[in-house]
Design a protein that fits this description.
Its EC number is 1.1.1.133. The chain is an alpha/beta fold. 40% of the residues lie in helices and 15% in strands. The chain has nine helices and twelve strands.
Length: 304
C-alpha cells in the first residue's frame, strides 16, 4: 500500500502548454497539486530545487520544464544543457532524497531520425542536434539516479489550446493566406496535450502503486503522418480545401537544427503497465479542434 493516501503531485514548467494541461487535469480529478512555473522554480538552480521539493514533499514530480527552442540550442548549447540536462539531474537527486517518483518528459529528437521502422523504447539513441543531446543527457541523469523510480516519457509534435503550436499556426494561416507550403519529408506523430496529460496522470498513479516498471516509455498519439499531412487534415477540419496546402522539402526550408526525417515512436512498454498506447492522431485532433479554434479566435464549424 502506498504511504501517500492522497499523494501530492508537483509539476514543474507548469506555465507551459503541457504543464497547464496536466495541472488542470489533476485538479479536476481532486488531486493535491503544486504547480510551479519558471518564475516560481528555476530547475537549473540545484539549491532551489532541493528547497522546493523539501518544502512541498511531493510523491510524484512531473518535469514539464524544458528548453524547447530547437534552433536556438545550436548557438546556445550551455543554456539548453542547463535546462534539459542539469535540471532533470537536480530534480532526480531531490526525488531520491524524498523517495519520490519522477516523470521526465523527453523527445523523439534523441534518435537519429533515419530509421525504416518505428523506434522502440530500447533502441539506441543517436541525437543529431544540440537539443537532442541535451534531452538525452536529462534522460540519462534521471535513469541513473532513480533506477527504481525514474520514468522517461518521450513524446513528439505536441499541440494544444494552451500555447503556440503547429496546428494553431495552420488554423491562423488558413484565414490569412491563399496557399501554405509545408514540409512533406518529416514523418512523426501529432500528439494532443490532453491525451498526453491523461497518460502522465495514469503513469504516475501506477508508479506509486508499483504497477508500472520504471524506465522509458513512448507517449504519442498513434499512427503517423508528415507536417504536410497534418496541415491538410487541419484544413479539412476547418472546411477549407486541403489542396491549398502545398508540399515542400526540408532542404527548401533549411533551419539551423536538422529535423528528424523519420521519428515515429513504437509503444510496446505500456502493456507492461496495464495500459494500451494512446489513440490514433486523427481521432485526437478531431476532438481537440473546437478548443484549438477557440484559442485562436476561429469557429470550429466548417465554413460553407
Amino acid at each position: 500500500m502506498s504511504p501517500y493516501p492522497r499523494p501530492r503531485w508537483l509539476v514543474t514548467g507548469a506555465s507551459g502548454m503541457l504543464g497547464r494541461e496536466l495541472t488542470s487535469l489533476l485538479l479536476r480529478r481532486g488531486a493535491a497539486v503544486t504547480a510551479l512555473g519558471r518564475g516560481a522554480l528555476d530547475i537549473t538552480d540545484g539549491v532551489a530545487v532541493r528547497a522546493a521539493l523539501a518544502r512541498h514533499r511531493p510523491a510524484v514530480v512531473v518535469n514539464c520544464a524544458a528548453w524547447t527552442a530547437v534552433d536556438a540550442a545550436e548557438s546556445e548549447p550551455s543554456r539548453a544543457m542547463a535546462v534539459n540536462g542539469d535540471g532533470p539531474r537536480h530534480l532526480a537527486g531531490a526525488c531520491r532524497t524524498l523517495d519520490a517518483v519522477l516523470l521526465q518528459l523527453s523527445t523523439d529528437y534523441v534518435f537519429a531520425g533515419s530509421a525504416a521502422r518505428p523506434y522502440r523504447e530500447d533502441d539506441p539513441t543517436a541525437p543529431r542536434t544540440v537539443y537532442g543531446c541535451t534531452k538525452r543527457a536529462g534522460e540519462r541523469a534521471v535513469l541513473s539516479t532513480l533506477p527504481e523510480a525514474g520514468y522517461v516519457v518521450r513524446t513528439a509534435w505536441l499541440y494544444g489550446a494552451g500555447g503556440p503550436n503547429f496546428v494553431a499556426k495552420m488554423i491562423r494561416l488558413e484565414a490569412e493566406q491563399d496557399t501554405v507550403r509545408v514540409v512533406d519529408d518529416q514523418h512523426g506523430q501529432p500528439t494532443w496535450t490532453a491525451d498526453l496529460a491523461g497518460r502522465l496522470a495514469a503513469l504516475g498513479s501506477a508508479a506509486l502503486a508499483g504497477a508500472a516498471p520504471a524506465g522509458v516509455y513512448h507517449a504519442t498519439n498513434t499512427g503517423s503522418t508528415t507536417w504536410y499531412g497534418l496541415a491538410r487534415e487541419t484544413f479539412r477540419l476547418l472546411g477549407a480545401d486541403p489542396d491549398r496546402v502545398r508540399p515542400t522539402t526540408s532542404r527548401a526550408l533549411a533551419r539551423p537544427a536538422t529535423r528528424p526525417g523519420y521519428s515515429v515512436l513504437d509503444q510496446p512498454r505500456w502493456r507492461e503497465a496495464g495500459m494500451e498506447p494512446l489513440r490514433d492522431w486523427r481521432a485526437a485532433l478531431a476532438e481537440a479542434f473546437p478548443p484549438l479554434c477557440g484559442a485562436v479566435g476561429r469557429s470550429a464549424v466548417p465554413r460553407r
